[in-house]
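Quick illustration, no need to memorize.
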Amino acid sequence: MTVVLQRAEFARVIVDGEVVGEIGKGLLLLLGVAEGDTEADCDSLARKIATLRVFEGPGGKLDVSVQDEPGATGVLVVPNFTLCANTRRGRRPDFSPAAPPGLAERMFDRFVAQMQAAGVPTAKGVFGAHMHVELLNDGPVTLVLRSEGR
């Protein structure tokens, strides 16, 4: 699994002109599920993100997680199979490393459930839909996280 994490002042997802997921201060997570990703990968990555210290604590150091940030409203998780693209050869991305849609959707739903189980309010995009994602990046703080085998 690959996650692009962006600390946000706000973020929202729009599908067919309607807001389907929205947060205030928190984290926008773009989530890509690759062939071979496991439930253990999903659970581990969700736990890591819930406790990852990406908000400023006393002294200005990144020392507070989304679970503990008093002003955070949660996370917005957006499915994004294009994160799994292979771009090593040619000029056209190869999306064959992405997990099949059925598996990817199950893993996406599991990831969202794991974030909620960690006590993090979680909004989400719509799997398989064409989405517009709006974000006011804070910092900017942007990290790329990958599950163990990636």
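DSSP finds two helices and eight strands in the chain.
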